Please model this.
Amino acid sequence: MTNIFNNLTLNKLKINLRYFAAILSIILLIGCIPYSDNPLTDPDKDKIDKMILGTWYWNDENETGFVHIGLNEDTGLLRIIMVDIDSDNELDESEYSGHTSSLKDNSYLNIKAVRPKDDNTGYMIIKYSAKKAELGIALMESKVIEVAVNEGKLRGSSEQCCSSVQINEVQEKLQEFVLKYDKELFPDMKYLKKLALPK
Model:
C-alpha cells in the first residue's frame, strides 16, 4: 500500500513539473486564472528584480522546458519566453511581458500575454521566489478570488459558465487583499532550476 502511495505521489510530481510551462499558456486560454485590471505596483524599470533574470528549466523523461526571462530593449521591463519540447519533438512557445512587485517580504510578477494573443488585456499576478540556482512560481488560486468577489471582499466579476474571474479592485486595496490572503492565494509553489552554461 505504501509503495502504491509513493508511486502515485512521484507520478503526480512528474506531471506537475512536466506541464509547468504549458500550464500557464493553457490557463490563459481557458480563463481559469484571475486577471486584474491593475498590477500590484506600477511598472518601473528601475525596480525590476534582477534575481529573476536568466534561463530556468526542467527536464524529465517526457518533456524539456525552458523559461527565458530578460529585459525588453524598448521598455526596460520584463520579457518572458517559454519553450517546451515533448517526447515527439513538438515545440510549444509562449511570450509574456511584465514587471516585478515587492510587497513586504513577498515578491510577485505582473504579466500580460503577448503570444498567443489573449482577449483579456489584464494582468496575471504570480508569486515567485528567486534564488541563485532555482526559481519558485505559484499561480493565483482562482477559487479564493471567486469567493472574495462573491462575498464583496474584493471588487470584481466572475462568470460561472467559463470559470473566469476578473479583478477590478484599485491598486491599494488589491495590495492589502493579496498580503492578507497570501497563503490562501498562492498555496502551491513549483521550482525550476537555473541553467548554468559552461564558460
Remarks:
- Residues 2-18 form the longest helix (17 residues).
- The longest strand covers residues 91-103.
- The mean pLDDT is 84.
- DSSP finds five helices and eleven strands in the chain.
